Amino acid sequence: MDVTGLRIAMFSGNYNYVRDGANQALNRLVEYLLRQGAAVRIYSPTVAEPALPPMGEIVSIPAFAIPRRPEYKFPLPIPGAVKQDIAAFRPNIFHIASPDMLGHGAVNLARRLGQPAVASVHTRFETYMRYYGLAFMEPVVEAILRRFYRRCDAIFAPSDSMAQLLLEQRMNYNVGIWTRGIDRAVFNPDARDLAWRRGFGIEDDVPVIGFVGRLVMEKGLDVFSDTIDRLEARGVRHKVLVVGKGPAREWFEQRLPAAVFAGFQEGPDLGRAVASMDMLFNPSVTETFGNVTLEAMAAALPVVAAIATGSASLVQDGVTGRLVPAGEAEHFADALEFYCSSREARREAGKAGCEISRRYGWDEVNQELVDGYLRVIRDRAAGKLPR
């Protein structure tokens, strides 16, 4: 079998109604699969006005809004009519992108139909507990995730560091890599636009510290703002540029009243915004890859990031940026002060990061997942996987 023989039933709790790195990766994957001749059908909750135009055909799954985070939905069990639709589609592999009720139901159905099920890991859900005052629940959430992932034939991590963590957590012992790509037509140093910066009142010679992403507390906004407080206390000349939107924007604006909030950007506008920064600061520990880190590297920016899954596989400490223990605002401030104080250091780190980013192309990384699909199907047919 080759890619044209694949019939993939994909299950996601959020395929396109919120714009984030995981959803964009899934949509790029589906576009690639369809372009290569595979058959794909997506099962996900839907909304009237999605954030992304969906690639492929979506079958809507009933869901309810998550309390305190109504922009996200929690899918309900697979209805009987949808199970009939799945059976009629005749998938030969199930791809599950979220370990929720829909994902558990999809694994059950795959077992009943005698087909392999794989899961892609996009978020470290267990770490979310610490942002809601429930850190004591992390071991419980980790155990729930382990039960789900170990029922899959294989799981795919977006980075080597995340794959190693999954093995250490005993989530599954068949762990492959499906990394992320970069659109170099959008993210590149030539997109830098000082005139655009001036429109926000940013002087050309002021080092700009950038934040890119959804404005939610799980992105480490508290650590980011605490670090900026320390820079200001030291008298380090800088400007903060925030790109993104989300429910924590008002909180972030109050914490950083001197920052520039450029709002949501996409496509070439996002590429321009990133390239117009002088460094990226990414203190988050919840990502499994860190698309924004790779985008910044492609734009020739040094990256200061937490030592966490994803970033640890992309950032070379002392070469393309600095890796700092999570939550260490004082050490983050040291790293940012270093790059704020040296144009040459920024140039050297940015050049190195830009060179590394050339290894990541979307078609190449998506083909690696296709090869993984085919391997899992062959192994199940040969009786090498547990049933």
UniProtKB/TrEMBL annotation:
UniProt keyword Iron present: no
In terms of PANTHER family, this protein maps to: SULFOQUINOVOSYL TRANSFERASE SQD2
One Pfam entry name? Glyco_trans_1_4
Q: Which UniProt keywords apply?
A: Transferase
* GO MF annotation, one: glycosyltransferase activity
Name under which the protein is recorded: Glycosyltransferase family 1 protein
Q: Where is the Glycosyltransferase subfamily 4-like N-terminal domain?
A: 20-184
